Amino acid sequence: MDIDVAGFLQRRLNPQLVTQEEALPGRDQPILDPIPRHAVLGLPLDEVPEGCEVAHFAMGCYWGEERLFWETDGVVNTSVGFMGGITPNPTYRETCTGQTGHTETVQVVFDPARISYDDLLRLFWENHDPTQGFRQGNDVGTQYRSAIFPTDEAQLAAATRSRDAFQARMTESGYGQITTEITPGATFYRAEEEHQQYLHKNPGGYCPNHATGVRCG
Q1: CA distances from 45 to 18, 83, 131, 170, 206 (A)
Q2: The pLDDT of residue 2
Q3: Cβ burial, residue 125 (10 Å; 0-12/13-18/19+)
Q4: Active site residue 216
Q5: What CATH number should be reported for the domain holding residue 117?
Q6: Residue 210 falls within a domain, yes or no?
Q7: Which of 1, 43, 188, 214 is 20 to 30 A from residue 178's alpha carbon, by CA?
Q8: Per-residue pLDDT tens for 33-48?
């Protein structure tokens, strides 16, 4: 892996999305192979049980984000990875350089008979600060930007509607413009096994809370 050290330091000071020409080349094969089972929920990480649906959210460091969702009733599977960038099958280390363009993302498999996509959106908005651009708190970089990656037109419409409604709530509370990206059609690349269910494996691990206290209503 050829990391541009000078570029990395510059991106830390002034985060900007990498261009196609600057992006790392990546690889053809997935980083996570074979697919392990969820350390808490027990399913293979790529399993989507019949009748379940898939959602993708990025809201800062994905360790705490994943735990938030796997502890939610109606969520049957989760895994962490990267979306929204250029480099295929990036590693965690590569993504942290800012040279892949991806943001840390959790894949959420949920049973719509038990929890709705709108309920998941509520968890998303209420558990981070969606106005911070390329950062969450002290975590600075394009890999920490807020994003929703809808899997179909219904999710796209719901995500857009919820963003507009939450913007009104944020404005009332004195916050600025929401910077959350809503990008359909992105590819999810799973991270290495050590990052999957990280806070279950490392109970005292890093888990910042960047919630603003603003509720969806």
Answers
A1: 29, 16, 31, 35, 22
A2: 54
A3: buried
A4: no
A5: 3.30.1060.10
A6: no
A7: 188
A8: 999 999 999 999 999 9
pLDDT band at 28 (very low <50, low <70, confident <90, very high): very high
Residue ranges of alpha helices (H) inside 127-194 are: 153-172
Residue tagged 């990546």 (tokens): 26
Distance CA 190, CA 210 (A): 24
Q: Cβ(55)–Cβ(161) under 8 Å?
A: no
What pLDDT was estimated at residue 164? Answer: 98
**Whole-model pTM above 0.90?**
yes
Distance CA 8, CA 98 (A): 7
In this structure, is residue 88 part of a structural domain?
yes
Q: Cα–Cα distance between 208 and 211 in angstroms, integer?
A: 9
Q: Which amino acid is at 163?
A: R
Please give the structure tokens belonging to residue 162. Answer: 């919820």
* Residue 175 falls inside a structural domain: yes
Instruction: Tell me the residue range of the domain where 115 lies.
Output: 21-201
pLDDT tens readout for residues 80-113: 999 999 999 999 999 999 999 999 999 999 999 9
| pLDDT average, residue stretch 152-178 | 98
